[in-house]
Design goal:
Helices cover 81% and strands 0% of the residues. The chain contains eight helices and no strands. The protein is mostly helical and 209 residues long. Helix 5 (93-122) runs antiparallel to helix 6, helix 6 runs antiparallel to helix 7 and helix 7 (151-173) runs antiparallel to helix 8 (177-207). The model is unreliable at 1-5 and 16-31 (pLDDT under 50).
Length: 209
């Protein structure tokens, strides 16, 4: 009896505050991540279009692949910086948690693309790289975009479809390496360039940044 008597009842105010905190955290976790910068995505698309043009110059044997590696690094840098700038205006713990989840969901597909790029390069399968890049990047965007605004997983799905179609065309549809290269370049310009720009414009209009 003494044990029960020593315990003070929980104040109604404290219980209400705990409930409110739980509800607020639940709502923050369920709200979409809007830290993606529309301007950043437009810039990424422009970089990809420039890279598509520069990559066709073929100054050296490995000019094309190194051009696109530079494009990937530059685009990723621009995307991260612009996202951090936009998130700075949204100083809430939930935004940073959502950003980490977005990055963790996107990372596996990007890492898989890095390993497969090295493998395809060593095996001389350069013609299959565009389709593989689009497919894996689209997969990562769909996974990360599931926690973000609806337009992102839609963009990722379109990239996956574009990458799959490019791979099938390269394997069975093309009649020469020149045609396969042209199809791959066009697909990457449409995916990494056009889709990024279009999605960025939509995000900027609806969510700012």
């Amino acid at each position: 009896m003494e044990e029960f008597e020593d315990k003070a009842p929980i104040a109604l105010h404290d219980r209400a505050m705990d409930n409110l905190s739980f509800i607020r955290e639940t709502m923050e976790r369920s709200s979409p991540f809007t830290g993606i910068s529309g301007k950043g995505m437009v810039a990424m698309g422009v970089i990809a279009l420039i890279g598509s043009y520069v990559g066709q110059l073929h100054v050296t044997r490995d000019w094309w692949i190194f051009t696109w590696l530079v494009v990937a690094c530059a685009g990723a840098t621009v995307g991260v910086i612009t996202m951090m700038v936009k998130m700075r205006d949204q100083e809430r713990p939930s935004v940073h948690r959502a950003a980490r989840r977005f990055a963790f969901n996107l990372a596996p597909a990007i890492l898989a693309g890095v390993f497969l790029t090295e493998m395809f390069y060593e095996l001389g399968l350069k013609a299959f790289m565009p389709g593989m890049w689009l497919l894996l990047y689209g997969t990562g965007v769909v996974a990360g975009g599931a926690l973000s605004v609806r337009v992102l997983p839609i963009m990722g799905s379109l990239m996956m479809a574009l990458g799959t179609g490019t791979l099938f065309w390269t394997l069975w549809g093309s009649t020469s390496f020149a045609i396969a290269d042209a199809v791959g370049e066009t697909a990457m310009a449409l995916g990494f360039g056009g889709l990024h720009i279009l999605t960025g414009i939509i995000i900027h209009i609806r969510y700012g940044g």
